[in-house]
Amino acid sequence: MQIFYAPVVNGETCVLDKSESKHCIRVLRMKRGTEVQFVDGKGNLYTGFISDPDPLKCKIEITSVIHNFEKRNYRLHIAISPLKNHDRFEWFVEKSVEIGIDIITPLICCKTEKPGIKVERVENIIISAMKQSIKAEKTRFNKPAPFDDFINLEHGGVLLIAHCRDTIDRIKINDVYSKGEDAVIMIGPEGDFSDEEVEKASRKGFKQIRLGKSRLRTETAGIAACHSVYFINQ
């Protein structure tokens, strides 16, 4: 069944925004009385039927709701450097949302070459991926954070930094992360973190990890980290 997104619910009804209404009525050609499902981005999955098939503001009467739909027992926050190629960064966003991620923070490192982010486009990608993978809670996309500012924030859970340097300090993610724990994972830019950045993060409690034997692109490393946490929690 097609899933819609409606962040505002008023009692037993909701009105889809212009974009969702157009897709529902004009593209999918749904009619009055058609059963639909939608999520509010706050963890709830609703079922209802179309009571007013207006292509600009389609109204839905709610018949049931599942609270905390498929809520995970852990929270994952990945801070990842923006990339020169926006498409590759957006691919990471899309796939990580499909797998399951709570927070994404663009991380501005000393080797980050193109820090700009198309926030509105990224938010649309998050919503689309959330609906496609039937997630009821919307991933939060933070404002870009400078590296030093980020490591000085108060973070909960296991703190990890993934890098490519061949040092004895790096360990496998499953050696330090356990099922059910919250995690914050930092992923560096194309040129990797600098030695100074790794040392700073380590002093702040971030454990150094490796994501396999291969040298991965930034966006691939982000997905590998996301899926590793997902797999451990299965």
Overview of this protein structure:
- This protein has 234 residues and is α/β, with parallel strands linked by helices.
- The chain has two domains: 3-66, Ribosomal Protein L25, Chain P (Beta Barrel), CATH 2.40.240.20; 76-232, Alpha/beta knot, CATH 3.40.1280.10.
- It contains six helices and 14 strands.
- The protein has helices at residues 18-27, 86-99, 119-132, 147-151, 195-203, 218-232, and strands at residues 3-5, 9-10, 13-15, 35-39, 45-52, 59-66, 76-80, 103-108, 140-141, 145-146, 158-162, 171-172, 183-187, 207-210.
- Strands 7, 8, 9, 10, 11, 12, 13 and 14 form an eight-stranded parallel beta sheet that branches. Strands 1-4-5-6-3-2 form a six-stranded mixed beta sheet.
- β4 (35-39) and β5 form a beta hairpin.
- It is elongated, with a radius of gyration of 20 Å.
Short description:
This protein has 234 residues and is of the alpha/beta class. It has helices at residues 18-27, 86-99, 119-132, 147-151, 195-203, 218-232; strands spanning 3-5, 9-10, 13-15, 35-39, 45-52, 59-66, 76-80, 103-108, 140-141, 145-146, 158-162, 171-172, 183-187, 207-210.
Keywords:
single chain; 234 residues; Ribosomal Protein L25, Chain P; Alpha/beta knot; 2 domains; 6 helices; 14 strands; 26% strand
In terms of topology, how is this protein built?
Layout: E1 3-5, E2 9-10, E3 13-15, H1 18-27, E4 35-39, E5 45-52, E6 59-66, E7 76-80, H2 86-99, E8 103-108, H3 119-132, E9 140-141, E10 145-146, H4 147-151, E11 158-162, E12 171-172, E13 183-187, H5 195-203, E14 207-210, H6 218-232
Parallel strand pairs: 1-4, 7-8, 7-13, 8-9, 8-10, 11-13, 11-14, 12-14
Antiparallel strand pairs: 2-3, 3-6, 4-5, 5-6
Helix pairs in contact: 2-3, 2-6
